[in-house]
Specification:
The complex is a heterodimer of chains A (267) and B (330). Chain A contains seven helices and 15 strands. Chain A is of the alpha/beta class. Chain A has a nine-stranded mixed sheet with strand order 11-10-9-12-8-1-6-7-13, with helices on both faces. Chain A has a two-stranded antiparallel sheet with strand order 2-5. In chain A, β9 and β10 form a beta hairpin. In chain A, α3 packs across α4. The longest helix of chain A is centred in the N-terminal third of the chain and has 17 residues. The mean pLDDT of chain A is 95. Chain B is of the alpha/beta class. Chain B has nine helices and 16 strands. Chain B has a seven-stranded parallel sheet, with helices on both faces. In chain B, strands 13-12-14-15-16 form a five-stranded parallel sheet. A three-stranded antiparallel sheet of chain B has the order 6-7-8. In chain B, α3 crosses α4 and α5 runs parallel beside α9. The longest helix of chain B has 19 residues. The mean pLDDT of chain B is 94. Classes of the chains: A alpha/beta (267), B alpha/beta (330). At the A-B interface, α4, β9, β10, β11 and β14 of A face α4, β5, β7, β8 and β11 of B. β11 of chain A pairs antiparallel with β11 of chain B.
Chain lengths: 267, 330
Amino acid sequence: MHLVVCLKQIMDPELPPGDFRVDAQKKEAVRGSANLVISVFDENALEVALQLRDAAGGGKITALCVGPESAVDALRKAISMRADEAIRIREEEFPALDAYGTARLLAAALRKLEPADLVFCGREAGDWHGAIVGGLLAGELQRPFVSLMAGAQRAGDLFVLRRQTDEGWETVECAGPAVISVTNDDANQPRIPKVKDNMMAFRRQIPAWGAAELGINAAEINGPNAALEFASLGIPKSERQCQVIGGESVEEKAARLAQKLADLHVL
Amino acid sequence: MKNVVALLIAAPGGLRRTEAEVLSAGRRLADGLGGTLAAVILGAAETSWDGDAAAYGADRVVRVEHAGLAEYQTEMMVEAARRACAALQAEVCLAPSSTYGLEMAPVLAQKLGAAVVTDVIAASGEAGQVKITKPVYGGKANSELIARKAPLVLVMRARSVAVLERKAGAAAETSKLDVQLDAGLAKSRIVERKQEASAGARLEDARIIISGGRGLGGPDGFKLLVELAGLLGGTVGASRAACDQGWVPASWQIGQTGKKVAPDLYLAVGISGASQHLVGISGAKHIVAVNKDEKAPIFETSEAGVVEDYRTMIPALIEAVKKHRAAQGK
């Protein structure tokens, strides 16, 4: 069983809003002192893959990342969590990549690898929140796409997937190969790597593939999303003025808050 | 760009808020572009959907019915939607902001050769182009995108669209589109559905939400919130921090990684106000915060706040609400 997990490296989303700045010219966030991390749902996706492999008692997990040189750290983290292989796709060769381009690069890498039984993505990236690369990748590969999975099990030739929906839960059966997107859940909290695995991952060489290795023309990689004009990026201003409800005692504050709720017609 | 299509996925019962939002967003776009709005109903919805779609602004209603669409199935739905978009020469296609709509959007876009944007909080049409606002970086920033080329597939953020007033008696031309769908297209199958158990109304539908965060310090704090929610007829929610600690089920989570809610009252208790949480409550009408830390960012987003320890404040509020009601004779 070969499982491929697509990861993105992003600026730590836990950066407090007060420290968050954007470069309006470049239309991107200013990294400042923020760490680079694996995008949150991608780590959940890796965790689901690890659990699936471990339950099967064998198999191989390959982590794929379209990213700059720094993305090696994200891939080493995946190795430290016990992914078996990791490959970086050299984003620097593909400037201004759109979501279609990213999906096409991943598809090209997947065709070069041994056939995957399941391909995992996070439900959305923690920076741009596109939630589209997985679906586009499935389209490029002409494979089914099943989204918002919390967990996966194998049952014979089928994969049994647990999906979080608006209403509750669904069990979805799907024959591989397929592309699935993973959402966060109690059952797929990413494991903490062991110290010895961190050491092992630190020494690991991570291969990088570019246009030549993937047999791709960088000028033709983008799709229709590249035609969208990115007009601006800005920090929205909060216009709410907070009315502080004070009082001499807790009881007084509570009485005033109750009155406030009544004024808002919610009592 | 003039031909706007709102995709509706049939579900048991009448037309819901999810569909009303897609139609309302579509109507506004069509008006801005000087175009028309077609509602495409995928699957056999109740007949009342035709009139309701018209009431929320559809100029025409196209029903796509096929045995293969009786249950949601990604490939079948996408193929049906693709055919409908082709038949209607759709230039802007809005998918519902539901689990299924979000799943279909990129797959459909790929087949249509369309640009695709999800989690959109504003989309307006003018002079043949569509201006799109999409929050990024966990809601810490907004991006503005301009689409000049069709086709375009959009998914609005759930609860971010103000639903248009229902125009009772509005009529739309209704037609059926026959599609031949090969059952072999279906590669996955939903074998079981489970409704989520929640105390009170579903978070997404709740009029009042009392929500707790890391500041509660443990699962016991939530008992007070449950008591207050019971008194106010509300539902209890939580921040990611509280869910990650295992104090309450993950299904209670509100935020970027949880549910997006739009209650009349959102009472945030012991919630600091991380931007990823605020993303989930941007649709709330009134946000009120209780936090012992006066510097908690949640106050910047709240219209009223009390700086107080919830352990004393919530019991006092429960008493105050009872007293208030008694005084009102309720």
